[in-house]
Specification:
This protein is an all-alpha fold. The chain contains seven helices and no strands. The chain folds into two domains: 8-38; 44-173. It is 78% helix and 0% strand.
Amino acid sequence: MKSEFTYLNRESNMQPIADTFSAYINSLPWQTGLNILLLGDLLTSREFYDLVSIRVLVFLVILGIIGWSYHRSFIRYMQPAISLVPLIAGLGVAIMILIIQSEERYNQYYVGFIIIFIYIHVLLRLRFVYATAVCWFIFFLFVYASLQIDLPVVSFINSTFFSGVCQICGMVAS
Protein backbone atom coordinates (compact mmCIF):
# COMPACT_ATOMS: atom_id res chain seq x y z
CA MET A 1 0.00 0.00 0.00
CA LYS A 2 1.43 3.37 -1.05
CA SER A 3 1.68 6.13 1.45
CA GLU A 4 -0.20 9.33 0.71
CA PHE A 5 2.63 11.35 2.16
CA THR A 6 5.51 11.39 -0.28
CA TYR A 7 7.89 12.91 2.24
CA LEU A 8 7.63 9.66 4.23
CA ASN A 9 8.56 7.54 1.23
CA ARG A 10 12.34 7.18 1.36
CA GLU A 11 12.84 6.01 -2.24
CA SER A 12 10.96 8.93 -3.80
CA ASN A 13 12.84 11.43 -1.64
CA MET A 14 16.27 10.08 -2.55
CA GLN A 15 15.80 10.37 -6.33
CA PRO A 16 15.89 14.22 -6.48
CA ILE A 17 19.00 14.18 -4.31
CA ALA A 18 20.69 11.68 -6.62
CA ASP A 19 19.72 13.73 -9.69
CA THR A 20 21.04 16.91 -8.10
CA PHE A 21 24.30 15.22 -7.11
CA SER A 22 24.90 13.80 -10.59
CA ALA A 23 24.11 17.19 -12.13
CA TYR A 24 26.59 18.83 -9.75
CA ILE A 25 29.33 16.33 -10.54
CA ASN A 26 28.83 16.91 -14.27
CA SER A 27 28.67 20.69 -13.91
CA LEU A 28 31.11 23.21 -15.33
CA PRO A 29 33.00 24.19 -12.13
CA TRP A 30 34.13 20.62 -11.51
CA GLN A 31 35.22 20.16 -15.10
CA THR A 32 37.05 23.49 -15.12
CA GLY A 33 38.75 22.65 -11.83
CA LEU A 34 39.90 19.30 -13.16
CA ASN A 35 41.13 20.93 -16.37
CA ILE A 36 43.17 23.42 -14.39
CA LEU A 37 44.47 20.72 -12.07
CA LEU A 38 45.37 18.33 -14.86
CA LEU A 39 46.27 21.19 -17.24
CA GLY A 40 43.38 20.29 -19.51
CA ASP A 41 43.15 18.40 -22.72
CA LEU A 42 43.94 21.50 -24.78
CA LEU A 43 47.65 21.25 -24.16
CA THR A 44 50.18 19.41 -26.22
CA SER A 45 52.67 17.20 -24.48
CA ARG A 46 55.42 19.81 -24.92
CA GLU A 47 53.29 22.52 -23.31
CA PHE A 48 52.41 20.13 -20.50
CA TYR A 49 56.07 19.48 -19.65
CA ASP A 50 56.93 23.18 -19.93
CA LEU A 51 54.15 24.20 -17.54
CA VAL A 52 54.91 21.45 -15.07
CA SER A 53 58.61 22.35 -15.10
CA ILE A 54 57.77 26.03 -14.45
CA ARG A 55 55.51 25.08 -11.55
CA VAL A 56 58.15 22.78 -10.07
CA LEU A 57 60.87 25.44 -10.44
CA VAL A 58 58.71 28.09 -8.75
CA PHE A 59 57.87 25.64 -5.97
CA LEU A 60 61.53 24.80 -5.40
CA VAL A 61 62.56 28.47 -5.24
CA ILE A 62 59.79 29.21 -2.75
CA LEU A 63 60.73 26.13 -0.74
CA GLY A 64 64.35 27.32 -0.71
CA ILE A 65 63.31 30.73 0.63
CA ILE A 66 61.20 29.06 3.30
CA GLY A 67 64.18 26.90 4.24
CA TRP A 68 66.43 29.96 4.38
CA SER A 69 63.96 31.64 6.75
CA TYR A 70 65.10 29.26 9.51
CA HIS A 71 68.67 30.57 9.32
CA ARG A 72 69.95 33.45 11.45
CA SER A 73 70.98 35.57 8.44
CA PHE A 74 67.45 35.69 7.08
CA ILE A 75 66.34 38.53 9.40
CA ARG A 76 68.72 40.96 7.72
CA TYR A 77 67.34 40.24 4.23
CA MET A 78 63.77 39.33 5.17
CA GLN A 79 61.82 41.93 3.15
CA PRO A 80 63.72 41.45 -0.15
CA ALA A 81 63.67 37.66 0.28
CA ILE A 82 59.95 37.55 0.96
CA SER A 83 59.43 39.89 -2.01
CA LEU A 84 61.07 37.27 -4.22
CA VAL A 85 58.28 34.77 -3.53
CA PRO A 86 55.47 36.63 -5.34
CA LEU A 87 57.92 37.95 -7.92
CA ILE A 88 58.92 34.41 -8.89
CA ALA A 89 55.26 33.31 -8.83
CA GLY A 90 54.21 36.23 -11.06
CA LEU A 91 57.07 35.57 -13.44
CA GLY A 92 55.99 31.93 -13.62
CA VAL A 93 52.39 32.85 -14.44
CA ALA A 94 53.55 35.34 -17.10
CA ILE A 95 55.72 32.67 -18.73
CA MET A 96 52.80 30.23 -18.62
CA ILE A 97 50.63 32.77 -20.44
CA LEU A 98 53.32 33.13 -23.10
CA ILE A 99 53.56 29.35 -23.49
CA ILE A 100 49.81 28.73 -23.71
CA GLN A 101 49.07 31.41 -26.33
CA SER A 102 45.30 30.86 -26.33
CA GLU A 103 42.46 33.07 -25.18
CA GLU A 104 40.56 30.34 -23.33
CA ARG A 105 43.54 29.41 -21.19
CA TYR A 106 44.55 33.08 -20.78
CA ASN A 107 41.26 33.78 -19.01
CA GLN A 108 42.15 31.11 -16.45
CA TYR A 109 45.70 32.32 -15.87
CA TYR A 110 45.14 36.06 -15.51
CA VAL A 111 43.13 35.41 -12.36
CA GLY A 112 46.38 34.12 -10.89
CA PHE A 113 47.74 37.65 -11.02
CA ILE A 114 44.78 38.94 -9.03
CA ILE A 115 45.41 36.29 -6.38
CA ILE A 116 49.10 37.25 -6.28
CA PHE A 117 48.24 40.96 -5.82
CA ILE A 118 45.94 40.21 -2.90
CA TYR A 119 48.50 37.85 -1.41
CA ILE A 120 51.29 40.44 -1.60
CA HIS A 121 49.45 43.34 -0.03
CA VAL A 122 47.14 41.67 2.45
CA LEU A 123 48.60 38.32 3.46
CA LEU A 124 52.37 38.75 3.17
CA ARG A 125 52.31 42.10 4.91
CA LEU A 126 55.39 43.37 3.15
CA ARG A 127 56.45 46.96 3.57
CA PHE A 128 54.46 49.22 1.29
CA VAL A 129 57.42 50.10 -0.94
CA TYR A 130 58.40 46.47 -1.50
CA ALA A 131 54.82 45.32 -2.05
CA THR A 132 54.01 48.12 -4.47
CA ALA A 133 57.22 47.72 -6.46
CA VAL A 134 56.75 43.96 -6.79
CA CYS A 135 53.07 44.29 -7.72
CA TRP A 136 53.63 46.94 -10.38
CA PHE A 137 56.50 44.91 -11.85
CA ILE A 138 54.24 41.84 -11.98
CA PHE A 139 51.44 43.95 -13.48
CA PHE A 140 53.69 45.18 -16.29
CA LEU A 141 54.88 41.61 -16.86
CA PHE A 142 51.24 40.64 -17.22
CA VAL A 143 50.56 43.45 -19.68
CA TYR A 144 53.63 42.50 -21.70
CA ALA A 145 52.60 38.83 -21.79
CA SER A 146 49.06 39.83 -22.76
CA LEU A 147 50.29 41.97 -25.64
CA GLN A 148 52.33 39.07 -27.02
CA ILE A 149 49.20 36.94 -27.47
CA ASP A 150 46.55 37.42 -30.12
CA LEU A 151 43.75 38.57 -27.82
CA PRO A 152 40.58 40.47 -28.60
CA VAL A 153 40.82 44.06 -27.43
CA VAL A 154 37.81 43.62 -25.12
CA SER A 155 39.43 40.68 -23.33
CA PHE A 156 42.70 42.56 -22.93
CA ILE A 157 41.00 45.68 -21.54
CA ASN A 158 38.83 43.61 -19.20
CA SER A 159 41.68 41.59 -17.71
CA THR A 160 44.02 44.59 -17.47
CA PHE A 161 41.33 46.70 -15.82
CA PHE A 162 40.52 44.07 -13.18
CA SER A 163 44.18 43.39 -12.47
CA GLY A 164 44.95 47.10 -12.14
CA VAL A 165 41.95 47.73 -9.89
CA CYS A 166 42.93 44.78 -7.72
CA GLN A 167 46.46 46.18 -7.48
CA ILE A 168 45.15 49.57 -6.37
CA CYS A 169 42.76 47.95 -3.86
CA GLY A 170 45.70 45.99 -2.47
CA MET A 171 47.69 49.20 -2.12
CA VAL A 172 44.83 50.78 -0.19
CA ALA A 173 44.49 47.67 1.99
CA SER A 174 48.13 47.71 3.00
